[in-house]
Design goal:
elongated, mainly alpha, about 65% helix
């Protein structure tokens, strides 16, 4: 992820390096924010597909693609611990390149 110091580099690729990903996994701020977003989603609607769409709109400002929505619904699944499943889902949205880098 670091540019080659022997040649000029105008732009560094927009990616998340390991330390950034670990911060988003272990940071109390990221965890608390994910829990707050999950709580908002759970209280806003009873429909899992609607929660996924709302989460995408709030984090990325767009609708999820059909494959993204399907993967998200598979991830949260019919969990016995609803709040934890949605909180982990929200934290994964926060840790993505699309959330960390605005274009």
């Amino acid at each position: 992820d670091y540019p080659d110091p022997s040649i000029p580099t105008g732009n560094r690729p927009t990616t998340v390096i390991a330390s950034q990903a670990l911060l988003m996994m272990n940071s109390p701020l990221a965890s608390e924010s994910a829990t707050a977003l999950a709580s908002h989603l759970i209280n806003a609607t009873d429909s899992a597909p609607d929660r996924v769409r709302r989460a995408w709109m709030l984090t990325y400002g767009r609708e999820p693609s059909p494959s993204e929505a399907k993967a998200a619904l598979t991830f949260v699944g019919p969990s016995s611990n609803l709040a934890q499943a949605w909180s982990l889902f929200c934290q994964s949205l926060f840790a993505s390149n699309e959330f960390l880098y605005l274009h």
